[in-house]
């Protein structure tokens, strides 16, 4: 990033040049505000670069407020309605970026996530946004100068601004620059924090369960996973460390919520035959000479079916199984309960659940209710999307909302 002479005052300083920060800076700059974008990273927007396997799942066509976890579920409505997936798609198309749709309405770049980074940079250029990067922010203070309300003390000097936007994201992937900076600033100015914890994250298992499931390791299955009232249907992966795959990442956010809020480490329920009444199917097959494992192999991967039957001690032909045994098999197939012991943590989490409590913020502007001129946007807030482009759409929508009012 070019280093040029900086002024000692800007209308707006945005700290964090990620998805939300760049969107906000571009919108504010294009409204004619003088904007300084500050980031401590050497490389711009690393999280966008690595997202979606390098292709950035930049939004989702089917967004509803139900795709977000937030202590105040209504908070997201206003910003999402005012900046929709179609608004972002229009922007992507104006920049000539080709993209494609995958399952469940997820949109990805055809070429590279770098296209989205370049697009946001160009939008910032259109708004005359200035950059201070890499730069360390040492302290923030509330001041009363002729224009300024906040002073940012950085490794490159002190700069005042009227509006200060905190867009420093969550805690996931510390090795590419995630920090708790945003939470510390919130605390400094008296805003409450909903306890942060890793989400969209693989789940770990206690040693005894891990040993039991060892023979199933490597299996990938289309299942439905449920926990705490949520249910998702996608692929599950059994690994040597525990459970992974999209369906587990999705349910991890709900298992987490339950674990932390109710202090109750409930199991995750796995339906191995989603969309099928397992008991009805088994009853239709109850005269079969085949081993149960061979019957299950009609609907599940063969190796998995055999290892799963061995795990439960079901090694008989189906016709030798009693009605009670078949009922037990049906229950295990549709409601296989696995109790995780934890998660693989921020090193593997895609996002952070929790963050700056939205009750302390305006849902229209993202401004702190008790601190005029202080804004929080993106993942630093207590808003967490499902897997599938929802977290970026929140970054764009909240960044856009604040950009109109800073
Ligand atoms: P973001 O993390 O983008 O930006 C925060 C910025 O603040 C960073 O540039 C950081 O360097 C800077 N910063 C932090 N601390 C600072 C400090 N103390 N001083 C100065 N700067 C500081 N979502 C999605 O919708 N689709 C997807 O495909 C994916 N894929 C994906 C893959 C992986 C591996 C991860 C880890 C995450 C995703 N996500 C995703 C989630 C998505 O990346 C995330 O929700 C958004 O980037 C959040 O945007 P923010 O702008 O809030 O934070």
TrEMBL record:
Where does the RsdA/BaiN/AoA(So)-like Rossmann fold-like domain start and stop, copy by copy? 11-404
Write out the transmembrane intervals.
12-29
| Domain of life per record | Bacteria
Indicate whether Zinc appears among the record's keywords.
no
Pfam families found in the cross-reference section: HI0933_like, HI0933_like_1st
Q: Which PANTHER family match?
A: OS12G0638800 PROTEIN
Residue ranges annotated for the RsdA/BaiN/AoA(So)-like insert domain, each copy included: 197-351
Listed A to Z, the keywords are:
FAD, Flavoprotein, Membrane, Transmembrane, Transmembrane helix
Q: Which Gene3D superfamilies match?
A: FAD/NAD(P)-binding domain, HI0933 insert domain-like, Translation factors
According to UniProt, the name of this protein is Aminoacetone oxidase family FAD-binding enzyme
Q: Record keywords: Manganese included?
A: no
The organism of origin for this protein: Azoarcus taiwanensis
Listed cofactors: FAD
InterPro entries attached here? Answer: BaiN-like, BaiN-like_dom_sf, FAD/NAD-bd_sf, RsdA/BaiN/AoA(So)-like_dom, RsdA/BaiN/AoA(So)_Rossmann
């Amino acid at each position: 990033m070019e280093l040029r002479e900086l002024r000692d005052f800007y209308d707006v300083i945005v700290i964090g040049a990620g998805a939300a920060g760049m969107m906000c800076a571009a919108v504010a700059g294009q409204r004619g505000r003088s904007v300084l974008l500050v980031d401590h990273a050497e490389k711009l927007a690393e999280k966008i670069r690595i997202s979606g396997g390098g292709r950035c799942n930049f939004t989702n066509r089917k967004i509803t407020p139900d795709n977000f976890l937030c202590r105040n579920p209504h908070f997201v409505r206003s910003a999402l309605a005012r900046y929709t997936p179609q608004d972002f798609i229009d922007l992507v198309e104006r920049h000539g970026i080709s993209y494609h749709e995958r399952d469940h309405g997820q949109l990805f770049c055809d070429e590279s996530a770098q296209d989205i980074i370049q697009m946001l940079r160009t939008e910032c250029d259109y708004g005359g946004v200035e950059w201070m990067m890499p730069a360390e922010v040492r302290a923030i203070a509330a001041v009363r100068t002729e224009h300024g309300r906040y002073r940012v003390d950085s490794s490159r000097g002190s700069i005042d601004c009227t509006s200060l936007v905190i867009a420093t994201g969550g805690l996931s992937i510390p090795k590419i620059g995630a920090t708790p900076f945003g939470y510390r600033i919130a605390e400094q100015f008296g805003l409450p924090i909903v306890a942060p914890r890793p989400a969209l994250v693989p789940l770990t298992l206690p040693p005894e369960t891990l040993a039991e499931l060892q023979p199933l390791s490597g299996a990938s299955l289309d299942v439905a996973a449920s926990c705490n009232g949520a249910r998702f249907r996608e692929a599950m992966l059994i690994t040597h460390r525990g459970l992974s795959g999209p369906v587990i990442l999705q349910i991890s956010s709900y298992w987490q919520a339950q674990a932390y809020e109710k202090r109750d480490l409930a199991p995750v329920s796995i339906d191995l035959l989603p969309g099928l009444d397992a008991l009805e199917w088994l009853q239709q097959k109850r005269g079969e000479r085949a081993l149960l494992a061979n019957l299950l192999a009609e609907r599940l991967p063969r190796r998995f079916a055999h290892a799963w039957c061995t795990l439960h001690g079901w090694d008989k032909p189906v016709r030798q199984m009693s009605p009670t045994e078949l009922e037990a098999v049906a229950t295990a197939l549709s409601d296989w309960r696995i109790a995780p012991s934890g998660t693989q943590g921020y090193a593997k989490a895609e996002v952070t659940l929790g963050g700056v409590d939205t009750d302390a913020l305006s849902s229209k502007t993202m401004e702190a209710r008790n601190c005029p001129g202080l804004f929080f946007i993106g993942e630093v807030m207590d808003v967490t999307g499902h897997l599938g482009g929802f977290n970026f759409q929140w970054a764009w929508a909240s960044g856009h909302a604040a950009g109109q009012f800073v």
